[in-house]
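---------- Forwarded message ----------

FYI, see the Major facilitator superfamily (MFS) profile domain-containing protein record below. Original note from H. follows.
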Amino acid sequence: MSGLRSNGIFMSAMYLSEIADGSIRGTLITLCSVQINVGILLSYIAGKSLSYKAFNAIMIAIPTIFTLLMSWLPESPPYLMSKGKKKEAKKSLVWLKGGYESAAQHELEAMNQPKAAEAFISTVSITHESITETFKSRGARRALAISVIAFALQMFSGINVVFTFAGIIFKEAGSPLSPEDSSIIMAIIMLVSSIINLVVVDKLGRKPLMYLSFVLNAICMFTLSIFLYIKMRGVDVTDFGWIPIAAIGMYVFSFGIGLSSVPGVIMNEVCSP
């Protein structure tokens, strides 16, 4: 079930990449990360104050509402065009353009131009090629490698370990916060950083945000490692208990401004859906 949920997130990003204008595609895909962080924060708050049954009832209700609302959305125009359904594609475009038929017609005409159609299909459309045929292309293999490496670096950054053991680290540092409160604070930091990422992702670019995120993550983890090593050696670090709290807080912030969402943006921009 968790795997199905994770794949659903990627499908949402793919749908956005197919219906969004190129100038705002990165922002909209990043919005998925913001919404995920909103959900994480609300679930932490609800988990602290609600019973187990009430919490799970809410968790069932939200995706049910999403499913009902999603049924009203049209299929993406690139997908319909790839199936030869031009009338349905135009109808979908008109709906997505807010009823402006002239704008939808102009975009459809651009798709029907041989060169434009070839470029359009190669970037955002679904083709009839098999997986084997697709990966005979050097460009497809390169896009896959870039996407896999980007997501591997995201996981190898240690974010899951930090979230899992943050409460223990805070406790060892002498923090008065409970594990539940620590999780809520980290979720707030992640949400704020993802909102900042939403604002700057199309202005600063993908690579600068990735570089910044990596550098800050490395500094924070190095600082935390030195602190824990010194503490393990028996040195009194009572007066420096704020260091691991600051390091973890800054780590979560730096992860949120880059590594949290940029790999997903990169994948949807370099890979054909």
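H. also flagged this: The domain at 138-270 is CATH 1.20.1250.20 (Growth Hormone; Chain: A;).
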